[in-house]
């Protein structure tokens, strides 16, 4: 596997881990859990794991490439989650945003 591929896979993993952590934090907040709740602790632990994935990704690709990839992966995942779990429609604006994010990735590839 090339450095390029490894870097983007790690960035994808980082984005996925952060989104899962965010979901747990949202769950804890919505349910009125305190600061000592399990969902909050696991969410924070996932943030720590994502920091390790981010560090490893930046060993393989530039910070700019990692930043653009992270934003694109997050955008795609959140659009899918919003559509599947919250019934949000994906309109032409979202598709345009996704297209711009994908174009940015191609422009950032060295």
Automatic annotation (TrEMBL):
<feature type="domain" description="EamA">
    <location>
        <begin position="11"/>
        <end position="109"/>
    </location>
</feature>
<keyword id="KW-0472">Membrane</keyword>
<feature type="transmembrane region" description="Helical">
    <location>
        <begin position="7"/>
        <end position="29"/>
    </location>
</feature>
<keyword id="KW-0812">Transmembrane</keyword>
<dbReference type="Pfam" id="PF00892">
    <property type="entry name" value="EamA"/>
</dbReference>
<feature type="transmembrane region" description="Helical">
    <location>
        <begin position="68"/>
        <end position="86"/>
    </location>
</feature>
<feature type="transmembrane region" description="Helical">
    <location>
        <begin position="35"/>
        <end position="56"/>
    </location>
</feature>
<feature type="transmembrane region" description="Helical">
    <location>
        <begin position="92"/>
        <end position="109"/>
    </location>
</feature>
<dbReference type="InterPro" id="IPR037185">
    <property type="entry name" value="EmrE-like"/>
</dbReference>
<keyword id="KW-1133">Transmembrane helix</keyword>
<protein>
    <submittedName>
        <fullName>EamA family transporter</fullName>
    </submittedName>
</protein>
<dbReference type="InterPro" id="IPR000620">
    <property type="entry name" value="EamA_dom"/>
</dbReference>
